[in-house]
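Support request from a user on the community tier.

User writes: "When I paste my C-alpha cells into the form, the page sometimes reloads and wipes my input. The last time it worked, I copied everything first. Here is what I submitted, just in case something in the input itself triggers the reload:"
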C-alpha cells in the first residue's frame, strides 16, 4: 500500500499477475474530496487509459472511487497523477486482491455489511466490458470477489442489523425528528438508492411520501410500489415547501436543489407570526451532491451528507464485530486459494511452449514410423497416432504437474527454467544456486 507521493514498495506476496487498485474512500476522504476525485464521464476515462494496461475498471459508489487495473502500480499512479488526482492509496499484488475481497464482503463499506457493493462491482465490470477495457484476469477477480462477498454474508451475520446508505439516511431523519409518524417526506431519485430509501420509509407511518425523478415514468413506478405520489421534477419547489424531510439520491451530474431557489422556498415556510421558517431536513446521499453548496447556510435548512452517516454505522456495528472477525478469517482462506489459482494460470504460457514442442516431435516421429511401415491402412494409422499421443501425455504428465506446482507456490522462474531445459537443452541454474 502506498500514498501517491511515495514509492511503490517491494511487496512480499507471490502473485505473478500484475494487479493494482488505487483510489479514495470514506476512510480517508470527505464528500468534497470524493466529489473532486470522481470521473464524471466513466467511459471517456476508461477509453483514455485503455492502451496503458491489459485491462482497467472504474468502481464508483457514494463513498468510494477506485481504479482497478491489470497492470503495475507505478503505471496506475502515473495515470492518476496525469488525471490530476492526488491523495489516493495504492494496493498491489496480494494487497490488491485482499482489498477487493474486503470491499465485496462489505467489510470496507461505510455501512459495514451493506449489500449494494455487489451490484456496484458487477456494474463496473459491465461498463468495462461495454467499452472493451476489461480483461479475463479482471473479470476473474471481480467474479471471485462477488462470490466471496455472497459467501461471507451466508457464513456470518455481518449484515445482521446492518443498514444500507439509504436506510441509514432514513434513520438519521428519524433521529432528528424523534419520529416520522405523520410527516411529509420527499424522495428525489428512483434508482437503486431511491428504492432502498423508499422501502425504508414505507415501514413508517407517514402522512405522505412523494417521489420525484428526472424521468417521471420511473417516479410513477417507484411511487406505485410503496404507495407514494409521483412528482415531476419541475414541480420540485412546491413539494419542498410541503415536506418535512427531503432525501435526495439522484445520479445527476449537477445539483438538483439550487441554493437560490431553496431560499425562496424557505420564505414560503415561515409561520405568519414568526420570522423563521419551519425547519427542512435535507439528507443528500448523492455523489456528486444533489444539494448546491451553501444551501446549509439558509435559515431553517438542516443539511446532512454522506459524511453524517458514519455515526449510524457505529450505532449498528457493535453487535457485528465478532462476525467481522469471522469474515476476515474466511477472506484470508479464500485469498490463499485464489492466489494459487491465479499463479497456476501464470504457468499456462510455459506449459503451452512445452506441449507445442512435444506435439511437433510427436507428429514428426509418427509420420516417420508410418512411412517405414509402408501402409496407408486407416486402422494402423489410427493406432500409431493414438500410441504416440498417449506416450507424450504420459511423459509430460509429471513434469506438467511439477511446473504448475512451482508456479502456484510462487516460483515461476523455476517453472520457466524447467521448460527451457526440456525444450532447448538449457542448463538449469537458479539464482540462489549461482
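"...and here is what came back when it finally went through:"
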Amino acid at each position: 500500500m502506498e500514498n501517491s507521493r511515495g514509492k511503490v514498495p517491494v511487496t512480499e506476496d507471490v502473485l505473478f499477475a500484475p494487479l493494482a487498485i488505487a483510489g479514495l474512500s470514506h476512510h480517508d476522504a470527505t464528500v468534497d474530496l470524493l466529489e473532486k476525485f470522481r470521473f464524471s464521464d466513466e467511459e471517456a476515462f476508461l477509453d483514455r487509459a485503455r492502451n496503458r494496461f491489459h485491462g482497467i475498471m472504474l468502481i464508483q459508489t457514494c463513498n468510494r472511487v477506485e481504479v482497478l487495473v491489470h497492470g503495475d502500480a507505478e503505471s496506475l499512479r502515473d495515470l492518476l497523477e496525469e488525471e490530476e488526482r492526488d491523495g489516493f492509496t495504492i494496493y498491489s499484488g496480494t494487497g490488491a486482491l485482499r482489498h477487493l475481497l474486503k470491499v465485496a464482503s462489505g467489510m470496507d463499506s461505510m455501512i459495514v455489511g451493506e449489500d449494494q457493493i455487489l451490484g456496484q462491482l458487477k456494474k463496473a465490470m459491465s461498463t468495462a466490458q461495454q467499452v472493451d477495457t476489461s480483461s479475463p484476469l479482471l473479470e476473474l477477480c471481480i467474479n471471485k470477489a462477488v462470490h466471496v462477498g455472497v459467501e461471507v454474508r451466508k457464513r456470518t451475520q455481518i449484515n445482521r442489523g446492518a443498514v444500507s446508505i439509504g436506510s441509514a439516511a432514513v434513520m438519521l431523519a428519524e433521529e432528528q425528528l424523534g419520529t416520522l409518524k405523520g410527516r411529509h417526506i420527499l424522495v428525489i431519485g428512483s434508482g437503486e438508492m431511491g428504492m432502498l430509501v423508499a422501502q425504508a420509509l414505507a415501514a413508517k407511518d407517514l402522512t405522505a411520501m412523494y417521489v420525484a425523478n428526472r424521468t417521471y415514468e420511473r417516479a410513477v413506478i417507484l411511487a406505485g410500489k410503496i404507495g407514494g405520489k409521483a412528482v415531476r421534477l419541475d414541480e420540485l419547489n412546491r413539494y419542498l415547501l410541503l415536506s418535512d424531510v427531503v432525501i435526495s439520491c439522484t445520479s445527476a451530474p449537477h445539483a438538483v436543489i439550487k441554493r437560490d431557489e431553496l431560499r425562496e422556498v424557505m420564505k414560503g415556510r415561515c409561520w405568519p407570526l414568526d420570522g423563521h421558517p419551519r425547519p427542512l431536513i435535507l439528507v443528500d446521499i448523492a455523489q456528486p451532491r444533489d444539494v448546491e453548496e451553501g444551501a446549509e447556510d439558509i435559515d431553517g435548512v438542516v443539511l446532512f451528507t454522506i459524511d453524517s452517516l458514519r455515526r449510524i454505522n457505529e450505532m449498528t456495528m457493535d453487535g457485528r464485530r465478532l462476525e467481522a472477525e469471522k469474515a476476515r478469517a474466511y477472506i484470508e482462506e479464500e485469498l490463499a486459494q485464489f492466489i494459487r489459482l491465479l499463479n497456476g494460470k501464470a504457468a499456462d504460457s510455459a506449459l503451452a511452449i512445452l506441449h507445442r514442442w512435444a506435439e511437433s516431435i510427436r507428429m514428426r516421429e509418427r509420420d516417420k514410423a508410418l512411412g517405414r511401415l509402408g501402409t496407408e491402412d486407416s486402422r494402423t494409422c489410427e493406432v500409431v497416432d493414438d500410441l504416440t499421443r498417449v506416450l507424450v501425455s504420459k511423459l509430460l504428465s509429471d513434469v506438467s504437474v511439477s511446473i504448475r506446482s512451482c508456479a502456484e507456490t510462487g516460483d515461476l522462474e523455476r517453472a520457466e527454467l524447467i521448460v527451457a531445459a526440456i525444450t532447448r537443452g538449457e542448463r538449469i541454474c537458479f539464482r540462489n544456486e549461482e
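Agent notes: The reload is a front-end session timeout and is unrelated to the input. The longest strand covers residues 55-61. The chain has 16 helices and eleven strands. Escalated to web team.
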